[in-house]
Write a sequence for this structure.
């Protein structure tokens, strides 16, 4: 398994690279956002660990550009621990968000979860509902013959919906299964993600697939 660490603080970067290497991962280290983005675009990684506060190009901007590829899990590892920062990271498409200072044992546990989830997704082949087709290994989505580009997190949300067709899915269940987080009724991360997914796979087409179940959550099925 190959991991890319994008971290500008020298001691933290070296600590992560050495610790992950000793844990059996092939680990590359980029010491700024520009170099990290270049490595991510030029090579193939199973996971990216990304800091936020970096000179020249911060982690938010790196994440936005990585989203266009939508094929590598991303874990934010940053000192920015405010709720609005965590939500921003998840809404940008990150798979996880860990705040510094951190336990290395917890980091390893979160890495294993992200890698396992990615491997499970890759094992599947093609999923179809109505005119929506999902090539899971290639992460290629089409509806009515039109190619649709999703972020990594939008793809995970769509995959969860499609594999639970017709079921009423609560916001707490979606947050747990897609973000591995406990649902906080004061946050709207799930609703924001669903709204963005709707804009891409529902609004341009006649038949609706994502339905709101008021007071509960959402249901994914063919409907008008």
């Amino acid at each position: 398994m190959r991991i890319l660490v994008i971290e500008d603080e020298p001691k933290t970067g070296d600590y992560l690279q050495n610790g992950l290497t000793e844990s059996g991962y092939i680990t590359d280290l980029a010491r700024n956002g520009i170099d990290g983005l270049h490595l991510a675009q030029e090579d193939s990684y199973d996971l990216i660990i990304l800091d936020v506060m970096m000179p020249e190009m911060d982690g938010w901007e790196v994440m936005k550009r990585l989203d266009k590829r939508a094929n590598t899990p991303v874990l934010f590892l940053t000192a920015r621990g405010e709720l609005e920062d965590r939500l921003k990271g998840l809404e940008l498409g990150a798979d996880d968000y860990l705040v510094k200072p951190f336990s290395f044992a917890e980091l390893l546990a979160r890495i294993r979860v992200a890698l396992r989830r990615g491997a499970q997704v890759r094992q599947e082949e093609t999923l179809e509902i109505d005119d929506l087709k999902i090539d899971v290994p290639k992460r290629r989505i089409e509806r009515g013959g039109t190619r649709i580009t999703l972020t990594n997190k939008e793809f995970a949300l769509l995959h969860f919906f499609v594999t639970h067709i017709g079921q009423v899915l609560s916001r707490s269940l979606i947050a747990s299964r897609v973000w591995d987080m406990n649902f906080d009724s004061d946050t709207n991360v799930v609703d924001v993600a669903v709204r963005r997914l709707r804009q891409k796979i529902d609004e341009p087409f006649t038949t609706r697939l994502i339905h709101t179940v008021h007071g509960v959550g959402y249901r994914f099925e063919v409907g008008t």
